[in-house]
Amino acid sequence: HLLGMRTPTAMIVGLVLCPCGLLLTLTGTLAPNWRQVSLIPNQPIDLVWEQGIWDMCSERQSSHDRLCGQADELGYFEKVPVRAAQGLMPTSLVLTLLGLVVAALGVRCWQKEPRQVLAGVAGLVLLLSGLLSLIPPSWYTHELWALPAPADSTLVVGYSVVLSYLGSCLEILGGLALAFSFHHCCKEH
């Protein structure tokens, strides 16, 4: 029999959105591009620094020579928004994985009926993980220009922040969709 016959649409939506959110959040967490610093005084005009929450890279735009593991001479990694992201992003990823395992057990398509309460609990865990991974990119973006950088350089938001935002939103929406399972459970009793 077909998946859609027994599995409510909200559960399917949750099981599609949350893994997509996980991939985006994972990429955002690992990629060293939360902020780009360019037009750095006394440096080649085409040099760009990419700063993440774990690593810093410098790249020459003309030759694409890229070097990671750059020394943090300005104390960038010591700043609270970066430290918070180092704690919250991995915590969120672990919670997302946990939530997806619980969701898989709750939605289980090989059973006659999905376990509504389990799916609902998974939804709440995924909602929480989405909120946890929404805090760091929001805080980082708010503090973007306050974080240490060479004077008179140009600062822009990197793609890692954008991916983290998108991933968080997908996890929140997927979590809400799964949490909607509680509605069915209450209707039945």
UniProtKB/TrEMBL annotation:
The gene is Cldn23. It is found in: Cell junction, Tight junction; Cell membrane. GO terms for cellular component: bicellular tight junction; plasma membrane. This is CLD23 protein. Keywords: Cell junction, Cell membrane, Membrane, Tight junction, Transmembrane, Transmembrane helix. One of its GO terms (molecular function) is structural molecule activity. It is a multi-pass membrane protein. It comes from Indicator maculatus (spotted honeyguide). The chain crosses the membrane at residues 12-31, 84-105, 117-136, 156-180. Belongs to the claudin family.
